[in-house]
From TrEMBL:
The keyword Oxidoreductase applies. Residues 85-366 form the TauD/TfdA-like domain. Keywords: Oxidoreductase. It comes from the Eukaryota. Pfam families: TauD. The keyword Glycoprotein does not apply. GO terms for molecular function: oxidoreductase activity. This is Clavaminate synthase-like protein At3g21360.
Length: 371
């Protein structure tokens, strides 16, 4: 029986025997039971083996992140092949998604991936729809298929914690990262669970969080015409809106709820008010879904002042001491596993914030965004 059929069979069986029912009151319990059941019983041991990493964190029942490597006992030869991996992903997708839902991030390590094309095959094996990169700030270059470079800003610059494209209404639900070239030193991609950040901020700064929930945030960014690779937010307006036509850019900005104010050599974008705290409906918990710290501490270049890059939704400035306290909390709760060549990191963008530490070259991390 295939994985998807097993899921449907299990659910219908539990309904029949009365263990769960389809009422709104107990639907959550049924989903949780099935998710936990699948995570322990799906027959994927033929290829995937869960291993430990010293950097992992354990929050009650959440192991963050989960790390999967090849299981030598289930391999037909001495090492896995790329076709074997992609077939296993397709067959095991419900189980992998249940792990992702529980943990928020999956690291695949030790599999035979060496090129951008290999990575593209893995992304396509998951079958998630692609999300066009419209409205994002990072300079990126398409490599092959659905694969882009990660943020191309200079290696000495830190990229602060953020949910991908949290500053626009249409953001990816999942992110893939791939290590094509290991960093010389540094260059980790720290990740942190968003609901943990929310809980700690709510406990320490309740009035600030209440104001965020009431007013949201406004993001302001000035874009040049062309990309500026020296800036972590250096994506020009032509790349941001995937057009060279100002009228088309205005149409696409309007669909995002973004206002444009054209200047002599670029455009000022105003996004918001947009929520800074969201409800993760699938997990029924609040999340710290914003780019507040990233904007306030990192949106800096010759066109942009980071302190002016983000405000409360009513236009009032944010308190610096709370922003930097939030940054401290993010750092404390984060996990940073050093990259190894061939690593694939799958992130649930609703559950997890990510960042980038400075590094000494070489380093080449590729990315793919999914709806």
């Amino acid at each position: 029986m295939c994985c998807m059929c097993s899921y449907g069979y299990l659910y219908s069986t539990l309904l029949t025997v009365g263990f769960i029912n389809d009422s709104e009151k107990v639907r959550k319990q049924g989903r949780i039971f099935i998710s936990n059941y699948l995570s322990f019983t799906m027959p994927v041991e033929s290829l995937f083996k869960e291993v430990e990493a010293p950097q992992q964190k354990n929050y009650k029942e959440i192991i963050f992140p989960r790390v999967l490597s090849p299981n030598p006992n289930g391999l037909p030869s001495s090492s896995p092949t790329l076709p074997l991996l992609t077939d296993a992903i397709k067959e095991s997708k419900p189980w992998l998604e249940s792990l992702l839902h529980q943990s928020g991030a999956l690291l695949f390590r030790g599999f035979p991936l060496t090129t951008a094309s290999d990575f593209n095959n893995v992304v396509e094996a998951f079958g998630f729809d692609e999300l066009p990169y419209v409205g994002g700030a990072a300079p990126r270059t398409n490599v092959v298929g659905r694969v882009f470079t990660a943020n191309e800003s200079p290696p000495d610059q830190k990229i602060p914690f953020h949910h991908e494209m949290a500053q626009v209404p249409e953001y990816p639900s999942k992110l893939f990262f791939f290590c094509e070239v290991e960093p010389g030193t540094g260059g980790e991609t720290p990740i942190v669970l968003s609901h943990i950040v929310y809980e700690r901020m709510k406990e320490k700064h309740p009035e600030f969080v209440e104001k965020l929930e009431e007013h949201g945030l406004i993001y302001i960014r000035v874009l040049g015409e062309e990309d500026d690779p020296s800036s972590p937010i250096g994506r020009g307006w032509k790349s941001t809106f995937l057009t060279k036509d100002k009228s088309v850019a205005e149409e696409r900005a309007a669909k995002l709820g973004m206002k444009l104010e054209w200047t002599e050599d670029g455009v000022k974008t105003i996004m918001g008010p947009i929520p800074a705290i969201k409800l993760d409906k699938t997990r029924e918990r609040k999340i710290w879904f914003n780019s507040m710290v990233a904007a306030y501490t990192g949106w800096e270049d010759k066109r942009n002042d980071p302190v002016k890059a983000v405000t409360f939704g009513d236009g009032k400035p944010l308190p610096a001491h709370i922003i930097y306290d939030c940054l401290r909390i993010l750092d404390e709760e984060s996990v940073a596993i050093p990259w190894q060549k061939g690593d694939v990191l799958l992130i649930d963008n609703l559950a997890v914030l990510h960042s980038r530490r400075p590094f000494n070259p070489p380093r080449r991390i590729l990315a793919s965004l999914c709806k």
